[in-house]
């Protein structure tokens, strides 16, 4: 292995080269065999394989093993762009040919101390919580939840967000222009209800994004979080750099 390179990265990169030579749906050797081949622990090997699962190159099937994903599936990956220019889900795909669909699973008033803290509000204040499932070409892309101050944006509660982005609605109905998106990105293991919602096995690693969105005056407008389905979504980040 290359000196100074973490073991799991060296293993991941070599596995990626091996995958390029595999047939669609071909199975990787068992973990025990791969650990011997690379002279690494099972934890290190799984770290490398999990990275390739997130890239959409491999799929792990409980009780069967890990397989190279068929190429027709790889090329059908949904691609979402996250940038410093705040856009809604529909706006992200405005120039694409994909069919976009949103299912609203919650839109009501709640109290949430953590979300209130992120919004810079008192923990006891009422918040509007909007939870949605977002699909591209009828493939589930992500689960998202957004919190806003209830007293400031009451019309959110009665609006149909299956056909219009929340960002567009805030601008058209409240003259709020979302301009800044502070992002925090991490990988988390999906368990319990979230694993069922995203139709994956427990402890499946997935990309999670938290965002604090501000308007043109620098005021915090919304706090949101999204978890992306690891099998079908590719996230691109576009940031404008000022020099």
Distance between the termini: 37 Å
Strand order of the largest sheet: 4-5-6-9-8-7
Encode the helix/strand succession as letters: HHHEEHEHEHEEHEHEEE
Question: What's the tally of helices?
Answer: 8
Shape: elongated
| Total beta-strand segments | 10
Map the helices and strands.
Layout: H1 7-20, H2 31-38, H3 42-54, E1 58-61, E2 65-68, H4 71-74, E3 78-83, H5 89-92, E4 100-110, H6 113-118, E5 127-136, E6 139-149, H7 166-174, E7 178-190, H8 192-197, E8 204-215, E9 220-228, E10 233-238
Parallel strand pairs: 3-10
Antiparallel strand pairs: 1-2, 4-5, 5-6, 6-9, 7-8, 8-9
Explain this structure to me?
With 243 residues, the protein is an alpha+beta fold. It contains eight helices and ten strands. It has helices at 7-20, 31-38, 42-54, 71-74, 89-92, 113-118, 166-174, 192-197, and strands at residues 58-61, 65-68, 78-83, 100-110, 127-136, 139-149, 178-190, 204-215, 220-228, 233-238. Strands 4-5-6-9-8-7 form a six-stranded antiparallel β-sheet. A hairpin with a 3-residue loop joins β1 (58-61) and β2. α1 (7-20) packs across α3. Mean pLDDT is 84; it is low at 71-77.
Briefly characterize the structure.
26% of the residues lie in helices and 35% in strands. It has helices at residues 7-20, 31-38, 42-54, 71-74, 89-92, 113-118, 166-174, 192-197, and strands at residues 58-61, 65-68, 78-83, 100-110, 127-136, 139-149, 178-190, 204-215, 220-228, 233-238. The longest helix has 14 residues, at 7-20.
